[in-house]
Structure formats: C-alpha cells, structure tokens
Amino acid sequence: MTIDKQTVNRIAFLSHLKIDENKIEEAQDEFNKILNWVEKLSEVNTDNVEPLSSVNENSLVCREDIVIEKNQADKILANAPVKEYGYFVVPKVVE
Amino acid sequence: MTEITQLTIHETLDGLKNKKFSTVEVIKEYIKEMEVKRSLNAYVLETPETALSQAKESDNRYFQGKERRLEGIPLGIKDLFCTKGIRSTACSHILDGFIPQYESSVTANLFSSGGICLGKLNMDEFAMGGSNETSYYGPVVNPWQQNRNLVAGGSSGGSAAAVAANICAAATGTDTGGSIRQPSSFCGVTGIKPTYGRCSRYGIMAFASSLDQAGPIAKDVRDCALLLNVMAGYDAKDSTSANLPVPDFTKVLGQSVKGLKIGIPAQYRPDGLNEEISAYWDKGIEILRSAGAEIVDISLPHTQYALATYYIIAPAEASSNLARYDGVRYGLRVDGDHLDNMYINTRTEGFGKEVKRRIMIGTYVLSAGYYDAYYLKAQKVRRLIRDDFIKAFKQCDVILTPTSPTAAFPIGDKHMNENPINMWLNDIFTVSVNLAGLPALSLPIGLSADGLPLGLQLIGKSFDEETVFRAAAVIEKEAKFERLK
Predict the structure, then answer these.
(1) Tell me: the pLDDT tens digits for B327-336?
(2) Is B20 tagged catalytic?
(3) What is each CA distance from B10 to B31, B118, B385, B482, in whole angstroms?
(4) Is residue B267 within 8 Å of residue B304, measured between CB atoms?
(5) Contact between chains at B436 and A55 (C-beta distance less than 8 A)
(6) For residue B1, what pLDDT is reported?
(7) pLDDT tens readout for residues A26-74
(8) Which of B98, B143, B216, B266 is deepest in the core (most CB within 10 A)?
(9) Active site residue B404
(10) CB A61: neighbour CB atoms within 10 A?
(11) Helix, strand, coil shares of chain A as percentages rounded to 5?
C-alpha cells in the first residue's frame, strides 16, 4: 500500500500537526518506506487468532465511585500557560 | 582506596551503617563528580540542594537507628517520571517548565525508603528512540571511550550513562521496547525490565501504555534486585498494576542453577549476527552449562515479525497518549489565531521529529479504513508472539540471548540516521519481550575488541523475575566484568 500527498496532509491534520509544504514529499517517502516494511505482517496467517490488546488479561478492577482527592483547583491550574479566575484560558472559540 | 562514588548500593549501605562515612559526605562526593562529568550530558536537571537536605535527614535516621531500606542512596531519576516540585519534561520541548504537583508511585516508593534524588536524567523525547539523540536537550555521551563520542543508547541513555560514570549509585529507567536493556548493554551496566504490571505506571508519562514498564538500572545484579524490591508492588492508582506479593529478589542471589533449563532461541542468531556478540552469547551459555544448567534449543518462530508489530502498536498507543499535549493545561503554548491553530502550532513546535513521525504513523494505523489492516493485524500477531514464549517456557525456565545486535555507535551515525528503520533495528532482540509482557534483564558480559561493553539478556516467565536474577548472578560472577572507575 502506498499513500499520496493528500493522505499525508490528512494524517497531519488528524494529528494536529503541520508539515511544511516543502517537507511533504520527504514525509510521504518516509511514510511509504515504513508502511512497506510493516507490510511483512501480511505473510502471517492470523485466521482465528484473537487480537491481544494487553498482556494483562484480568478484567480491570472497578473501585468505588467516590471522590478521593478534592479541592485541588490550584494544583490543577498550577502549570497552565494561561489562566484566569480559576479557569484555563484558550483563544476565543465563539464570536 | 575505592572512591565512594564507585561503590555499589550494597557497599554504600554497609559503609553508612558502619559509620565509615555519612550520607552528607556521600552526597557531596556525588555532587562533585556530577559537576566534573557534565560533558556527558547525562543530567538535564541537578537538584543538589534538595539532595543535601534529604541527606541530613538520612544521617539523623542512621543516628537514631531508624534507617530505611535505601537510606541515603543517591539516585538519578529518568525525566519521564513525575517528581513533585521538580521539573519533569520527558526531555520534550512541549513540556517546558512542567512542575508536577504529585509524585509518581515508583519514585514515591524509592524516596519513602530513603532514596535521595540527585536530579533528572536525559532520555530520548517521550522515550522514543534508541540512542538518546531525540532528546530536546541533546544526546548523552557514552562514558566508555568518551573521546569517541558514542551514543549511550536509549531511551534511558542518561540513566545508563550516569550509572556507568558513577554520577549516581543507581537510576530509574523505563522500557517500552528495550529502553532499559539496550542502554544498559551499551554502557556496561545492569538493568531489568520487570513483568508488565510489576511496577506502577502512575505518574510516568505514558508512551505506549500496554508496553511501558519501569525498572532499575544499577551497577550490579544485587543492586537491581534490591531496587526492584522497593520499586515494585500493587498500586490502586494503576489499573494494570498486578495485585501480587513482591518476593525478596535478593534472596535467590547465589542460589545454584543446577538443573535449571536455559532456552536458546535459534531465531536470535540470524545470518550476519556480529561475531563477537555471537561468541559472548556462547560464553554465557558455557558459564551456565558449567554451573550445572541444562541448555535447551527452543524456537520463537514469530520473532521476525516482532519489530513490525511493535512499530504499529507502540505508535498507535503513543498517538492517543500524546493527544493530551495541546498547550492548554501544561507546558508549551504557541499562540494561534483560533483554538485549532493554537493546538497545531503548539504541537508542531513542541514535538521533535521522531515523536511527530510516530504520532502520524499511529494516527494512520488507527484511522478509518486502515485499522483492521494494520492495528488489528498487529494485535493478532502480538498474540502469536506471546504464544511462542508460552510454548517455549514449557521446555525451559529462562531464555538467554544477546541484548543488542551492536555495541554503542557514534553520535550522528549516518547509517542510523538516514532511515528511521535502521535505528529501530536496534530493538530486534528486546521488543518481543515487551509485546509478551515478560521480565528481562541485561547484564554486561565483556568488551568488544575495540573496548566497548556488550550485554546478554535473560528473559523470564511472567512474574518470575527470581529465576532471571538467579541465572544473572551466576553469569555475573563468572564474567568478572570490570566497571568504569
């Protein structure tokens, strides 16, 4: 499978990354090299094989639905690049 | 006389208990040594003041006879661990100035046992890399033959180099595809990636959650065992943490390997394997055989598919985990005229080349239309790789292989950098273990003809680190590897 420039741009968009116009070809070339390389997996017969998403197959434990740490707004905001009145501040999204 | 900084943890603890030196003296020696060896670029942040104030507390505890398991031991912490009040960046520009408001569970375990933080150690950005060259803070220089400017390996390159260069007694590392074992091999030190679930991942910046595992890098097998005793354990804050008792890993050291079955996988000796590495592997086999172990040929037939499987699954998980870096809650923000552009500008400037590459691969293999062909396929092959190990462990108790196909290579090596896949091939002997969730240790076995350390890897059954340590101690004793002074 090979991918075209349009796909590279689309993947960048989905990743919230920007690729300079003059670097797209390089990215496309690299992408295709990598995809060709992982293509090797198609040799493997995986009929009737269940996917393994984690080696930890015990079902996840649920804890009680209670608040254990509260009133930490200051800590949560401590690293915010921009904050005001106890909120994260982002560029305006509605006019 | 041996310098304090050359001592192992065990020797340092002995000296502290017997009042040969105080913790403050130990810490001062290390701080001095760290200053002298700054050209290695192993630390990205030094914390001498907090280390000295902690040292005073440790000395008090020794005075009162209330010392804890690691009382006064100076540790370096990989920058991937959140350390409360101490800048933690995963060596990424996107986490500029991030000061965690909480402590990772593993470092909390170490510090509450008396371990002292000397600073934060360099690493590949978000643990993505095998040479420490993707770090925002620049590569670590391997302390072996420093004038040759060789890589320390990665991603825990700072950790392995700092231990080798005696600028911490031991260090924390993390291992997603070989990031503890490969740098340990390159720097002539010992490191173990425990079984997935053995150490809590809480407070470790996530790269690939189903593969990431923390572990120690230290000067010898005994130190690794002691550190793992402290680092491991159930943690309700990590839902994948194993609710199992942690045995005392130091107890098995010195036990015989008589009758132990050592598996040797044919697939780890491909055509063209470096002859020196092959010969040292044979030496490891001979050591265990002479000690009474039985050598068994085993087969791990899907080994050749492990790298491709890994380089689908790890980027897929990374693309999801790294979606959180958006310039809103922490770290770098690069302004944009509206919200989406702020996200895009922040991420484009904040992430380095290798991280962006992996985010994009991950996004692609998870995107509509390609999910089944890549991601689901890789997860199926992952099961086959794990099943290979399950079958092999019916015939043997522990597996012996080389850790890495090469010794340390030069920083900026042309071949490694011309194609990302060349760099990824370094992980060829280590990634399968992460896919299968098994414990594996790397220890130095000897030097190459041109004087660089080479390592062997021992792979154990799930939650059987004890057999790994037991076999490792036997090899270590016979290999008589000389650490750097």
Answers:
(1) 999 999 999 9
(2) no
(3) 20, 18, 38, 17
(4) yes
(5) yes
(6) 54
(7) 999 999 999 999 999 999 999 999 999 988 766 677 888 999 888 999 9
(8) B216
(9) no
(10) 10
(11) 40, 5, 55
pLDDT in tens, B71-119: 999 999 999 999 999 999 999 999 999 999 999 999 999 999 999 999 9
Interface check for A14 against chain B (CB to CB < 8 A): the answer is yes
> Would you put residue A71 in left (φ > 0), alpha (ψ -120 to 50) or beta?
left
Q: Extract the tokens encoding A57.
A: 């197959």
Chain segment B371-394, per-residue pLDDT in tens: 999 999 999 999 999 999 999 999
Q: Which of B436, B23, B474 is nearest to B252 (CA)?
A: B474
Using the Cβ of A1 and the Cβ atoms of chain B, whether some distance falls under 8 Å is answered with yes
Q: What are phi and psi of B430, to 5 degrees?
A: -110, -30
Name residue, tokens 């990989």: B78
Q: Which residues pair with B427 in a beta bridge?
A: none
- The region, left, alpha or beta by phi > 0 then psi within -120 to 50, assigned to residue B338 is beta
Amino acid, single-letter form, for residue B60: N
Q: Cβ of B419 and A33 within 8 Å?
A: yes
The candidate with the shortest Cα–Cα distance to B216, out of B428, B455, B9, is: B9
Assign A16 to helix, strand or coil.
coil
Cβ atoms of B447 and B454 within 8 Å: the answer is yes
Ordered domains of chain B (ranges, CATH): 4-258 (3.90.1300.10)
∠ CA B255-B256-B261, nearest 5°, is 120
Reduced to 3 states (helix: H, G, I; strand: E, B; else coil), residue B294 is: strand
Instruction: Flag whether residue A62 sits within 8 Å of chain B, measured between CB atoms.
Output: no
